């Protein structure tokens, strides 16, 4: 599948690399721009195996080397001022019709749009890691985003095989991160109280609500169970659920101790180097199989 379209990814990190991979796999020409030459080289190496690689991908450190493009996805470090600067710089080099998207995990779109000359073609497009595999993309228009731009962004995302979902208004963390953090706040509280250990908690969630959430989503799942039953449980349970407004001691301690997860070899679980790579390969393979099954079921 070859397309004439040219996409620019700003930021060659975890997300930028998989965004570029996604575009290459869908036959798009891609330029990855990063100010950090070492990061750019890592991204280049990671994408070398893509079949379309040689003609379709470029890795640059400055806009002067980019040329005309249809879509720009900003995916640099999650920092408001940095993103504002990077977006303003991008605007100086692109046409007024080029879509300008930010992959922020939850910064306010209005704040990011401050200082843009053409905010009507700017919006959030929040991808999920690994961005080449996970289908959902939250699309977050700002107050100045034109409807036509939102439609064009959704069309482009569908061309990439994604399932864009447009939010009616921006809220911190958008939808998925709000739900993920609500879930994790409760998980952390259960660990702190010693109700379960990490192994048991993961097992309970994966093999109970986890598998059904992937098939149904939370709301359809509750419809299947009955909202009257849900209400009865909610009446006695809400008062007991975790509702702290700042991160608790367990998370603070893990981070202070350098137990950051897979990248440091330890988090809630142990991650010996070789095992972590094998786990990632297995996770990718499982995701691909699961998504293929879900696609088949929808046809
Ligand atoms: N990692 C995730 O799971 C995830 C998921 C969804 C969205 N996001 C969002 O995607 C964005 C990128 O996250 P990541 O995990 O890839 O981060 P990362 O730290 O892996 O990569 C960030 C990259 O931005 C580059 N960068 C910094 N300043 C730059 C500049 N001025 N110009 C060009 N490049 C610059 C850095 O060199 C680095 O390569 C963030 O906004 C993050 O919140 C991350």
Low-confidence stretches: none
Query: Compute the gyration radius: what is it?
Result: 21 Å
This entry's quaternary arrangement is: single chain
Unique bound compounds: nicotinamide-adenine-dinucleotide
Which fold name corresponds to the CATH topology of the largest domain? Rossmann fold
CATH architecture of the largest domain: 3-Layer(aba) Sandwich
> End-to-end span in angstroms?
22 Å
Number of strands: 8
Which overall shape is indicated by the principal axes computed on the Cα atoms?
A: globular
**Percent helix among the residues?**
40-55%
What is the helix tally? Answer: 11
Structural class estimated from helices and strands: alpha/beta
The domain count comes to: 3
- Portion of residues in beta strands equals 5-15%
How confident is the prediction overall: mean pLDDT?
Answer: 95
Brief rundown of the structure:
This is 3-hydroxybutyryl-CoA dehydrogenase. The protein has 299 residues and is an alpha/beta fold.
Task: List the main descriptive attributes of the protein structure presented here.
299 residues, alpha/beta, Rossmann fold, N-(1-d-carboxylethyl)-l-norvaline Dehydrogenase, domain 2, 3 domains, 11 helices, 8 strands, 12% strand, globular, binds nicotinamide-adenine-dinucleotide
């Amino acid at each position: 599948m070859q397309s004439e379209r040219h996409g620019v990814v700003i930021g060659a990190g975890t997300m930028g690399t998989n965004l570029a991979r996604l575009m290459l796999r869908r036959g798009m020409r891609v330029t990855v721009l990063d100010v950090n030459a070492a990061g750019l080289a890592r991204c280049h190496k990671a994408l070398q195996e893509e079949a379309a690689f040689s003609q379709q991908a470029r890795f640059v450190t400055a806009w002067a080397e980019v040329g005309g493009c249809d879509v720009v996805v900003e995916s640099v470090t999650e920092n408001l001022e940095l993103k504002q600067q990077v977006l303003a710089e991008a605007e100086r080099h692109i046409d007024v019709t080029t879509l300008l998207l930010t992959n922020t995990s939850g910064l306010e779109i209005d704040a990011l749009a401050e200082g843009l000359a053409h905010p009507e073609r700017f919006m959030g497009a929040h991808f999920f890691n690994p961005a080449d595999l996970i289908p959902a993309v939250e699309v977050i228009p700002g107050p100045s985003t034109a409807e036509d731009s939102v439609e064009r962004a959704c069309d482009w995302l569908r061309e990439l095989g994604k399932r864009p979902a447009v939010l009616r208004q921006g809220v911190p963390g958008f939808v998925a991160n709000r739900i993920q953090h609500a879930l994790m706040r409760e998980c952390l509280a259960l660990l702190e109280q010693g109700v379960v250990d990490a192994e048991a908690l993961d097992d309970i969630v994966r093999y109970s609500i986890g598998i059904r959430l992937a098939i149904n989503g939370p709301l359809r799942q509750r419809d299947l169970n009955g909202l009257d039953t849900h209400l009865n449980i909610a009446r006695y349970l809400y008062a007991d659920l975790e509702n702290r407004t700042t991160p608790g001691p367990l998370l603070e301690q893990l981070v202070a101790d350098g137990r950051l997860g897979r990248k440091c070899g330890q988090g809630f679980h142990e991650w010996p180097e070789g095992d972590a790579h094998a786990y990632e390969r297995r996770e990718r393979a499982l995701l691909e199989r699961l998504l293929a099954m879900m696609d088949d079921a929808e046809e």
